[in-house]
Design goal:
The chain has 106 residues and is of the alpha/beta class. It has helices at 15-20, 65-77, 87-104, and strands spanning 22-26, 29-32, 40-41, 57-60, 83-86. A 5-stranded mixed β-sheet has the order 3-2-1-4-5. Strand 4 (57-60), helix 2 and strand 5 form a beta-alpha-beta unit.
Length: 106
């Protein structure tokens, strides 16, 4: 029997939906990506207190694996229905969409 480990899993997603339902955190407190409300505790709020958007995704700009694993362990311990995503992937995808939109509107 092998021990449980965390690995990345890639899949196709609607980036607008991910961005709308994403909470970007540093350890525990985060910011709603839909309305930019700061100071949201991901273990206590399933929805944004301001805009009421349900959080389905959580991203962090933490680089150390140890910090990321702590967040993943907290998600598991609290049985949160939220998926951890790579913030760099989200940033790249939204920047690419914004750049494309800029050139379409020119």
């Amino acid at each position: 029997m092998s021990a449980e480990k965390y690995i990345r899993v890639y899949r196709s997603v609607n980036i607008d939906e991910v961005k709308k339902h994403c909470l970007v955190v540093e350890e525990i407190l985060g910011q709603c990506q839909n309305c930019k409300t700061p100071g949201i505790n991901f273990t206590q709020h399933k929805t944004c207190p301001q805009c009421k958007t349900e959080f389905r995704y959580l991203a962090t700009s933490l680089k150390e694996r140890e910090g990321i694993v702590k967040i993943l362990q907290r998600i598991k311990k609290e049985s949160l229905a939220i998926e951890m995503i790579e913030k760099e992937d989200l940033d790249r995808a939204t920047a690419k969409d914004a750049l494309s939109a800029l050139f379409r509107n020119s």
